[in-house]
Each structure stands twice: as structure tokens, then as C-alpha cells.
Amino acid sequence: QVQLVESGGGLVQPGGSLRLSCAASRFTLDYYAIGWFRQAPGKEREGVSCISSSDGSTYYADSVKGRFTISRDNAKNTVYLQMNSLKPEDTAVYYCAAERGSCFAPFGSWGQGTQVTVSS
User: Fold this and answer.
1) Residue 119 — very low, low, confident or very high, per pLDDT cuts 50/70/90?
2) N or C: which end of the chain has fewer CB within 10 A?
3) In whole angstroms, what is the distance from residue 104 CA to residue 85 CA?
4) Sign of CA dihedral 22, 23, 24, 25
């Protein structure tokens, strides 16, 4: 069974940075596309970023382009989301998900989420 655990969330001031981690267990992350999603209170879940398994291609939502960077460390079986220049509207629970396919297939395995709060 695929297991994903997110960490790295917290409270940060506007303009600050956080790095989220998505650690995988019971499977080798190399062969999976890994996506980051977020859900703010009262809003639908939205895709933030994804990194493919095949060639490492990366994708970003327009709202985070130029501020967020997704990367993977296969040796540590972990995917990261570096978030810079954070804004209050980035406040949400962030989830990572895995799919043994492309970034554009439905994601089948999800972590429990980590809270990110951007506030002064």
C-alpha cells in the first residue's frame, strides 16, 4: 500500500518561505508522478504543482509560477515543494499525491495533509 507523509507546514509571514516534504514509504517514488494540491477553507481542492516520473517534467498552477519549485530526491524517496514569496492566499492544507502514470491522470494515493498559514 502506497503511503505518503507530508511535513514542513506552519505559520509564516507574508513574503516568507517554507519547504514542504512528501516522504513515500512502501513504494519507490521514482516510478510515480507526484502532485501537490491544496484546499483552503470553503474552497475546492486545487492542483498546485506536479513532477512527472518519466522525465522529471514539472508543472505549476498560474497562481504559484515563479514562486514555488517542486523537486524530487529519489535517494531519499522524497518530493519537495519550495514555497517562496508566500501570500495570505496561499493559506491552505497542502496534500501530496502519487500516481503511477502522468501528472494528468487521476491521483490514487494521498497523504494526510499539512497546514500552511500565511499571516502577519
Assistant:
1) very high
2) N
3) 27
4) negative
pLDDT, tens digit (0-9, with 9 covering 90-100), for 44-60: 999 999 999 878 899 99
The answer to whether 90 and 29 are in contact (CB under 8 A) is: no
The predicted pLDDT at position 9 comes to 98
Question: Within 13 Å of residue 92, how many CA atoms lie on the same side as its CB?
Answer: 21
Q: For residue 86, report the phi and psi dihedrals to the nearest 5 degrees.
A: -65, 145
Could you tell me if 88 and 118 are in contact, meaning their C-beta atoms sit under 8 angstroms apart? Answer: yes
61, 49 contact by CB (below 8 A): yes
**16/94 Cα distance (integer angstroms):** 17
Beta strands in the chain (DSSP E): 3-7, 10-12, 18-25, 33-39, 46-51, 58-60, 68-73, 78-83, 92-99, 109-110, 114-118
Grid cell 505518503 in the structure block, residue: 4
**Could you identify the residue written with the cell 505549476?**
60
